[in-house]
Design brief:
With about 200 residues, the protein is mainly beta. It contains 1 helix and 14 strands; from the N terminus they run αββββββββββββββ.
Length: about 200
């Protein structure tokens, strides 16, 4: 049996399952890094779980944003943003015969050039920000001095966006970070970021 035929049957199975287990969500396909959620691409049925078996037996783990999407992924691409209820995800990977791998987002960010530059390169982008190392006391002689907290930011690949160290990330909460390192992959971007200290 050809792969395309098998894939069609797998997608039909996913669609039948999510019709019973899922709910209607919203799918966006970013075409601009400054307005990534400007237009709705589709409104498919969707459900999410961390194991790909979709047993829905346990809630999400703290600090583990990866999820699998139960949906008909015929028209799903890496980088798509999916909104289901109060939760927002972006699609990190789509492979034949497997459910899409997604990242549960907890913040919306804007990214500008290095400190002092007002040039914005990303606006309104959903991301996941996870603490990697908390601030600790440093022997600098300054009372109460702390090492900046270090975080991992996982974001979708956006059209024309190249992030570099020293860029400034600002969240919807008003927290600012400095980009320390950037990994670009087919899954999206993984950035080490550090809290800005005044």
């Amino acid at each position: 049996m050809q792969l395309a035929t098998i894939q069609q049957r797998v997608e039909a199975g996913y669609a039948a399952a999510v019709a019973r287990l899922g709910s209607v969500g919203t799918q966006y396909r970013p075409v601009s890094a400054l307005t990534p959620l400007a237009e709705v691409h589709a409104t498919p049925m969707m459900a999410f779980d961390s194991p790909a078996a979709f047993g829905f037996s346990a809630p999400a783990d703290w600090g583990a944003p990866m999820r699998h999407a139960l949906m008909d992924s015929t028209d799903v691409l890496a980088g798509d943003v999916l909104v289901s209820g109060a939760d927002t995800y972006f699609v990190a990977r789509v492979e034949p015969l497997r459910p899409p791998l997604c990242v549960l987002c907890d913040r919306v960010v804007s990214v500008a050039g290095a400190a002092g530059s007002a040039a914005q390169v990303v606006a309104g982008c959903p991301v996941s920000i996870i603490m990697r190392a908390h601030g600790e006391h440093m022997n600098t002689g300054m009372p109460g001095s702390l090492r900046p907290g270090e975080f991992l930011m996982i974001m979708p690949g956006l059209p024309g966006v190249v992030l570099t160290p020293y860029m400034v990330v600002t969240t919807d909460l008003g927290t600012s970070y400095t980009v320390v390192a950037v990994e670009v992959s087919p899954f999206g971007l993984r950035c080490t970021i550090a809290t800005q200290q005044v």
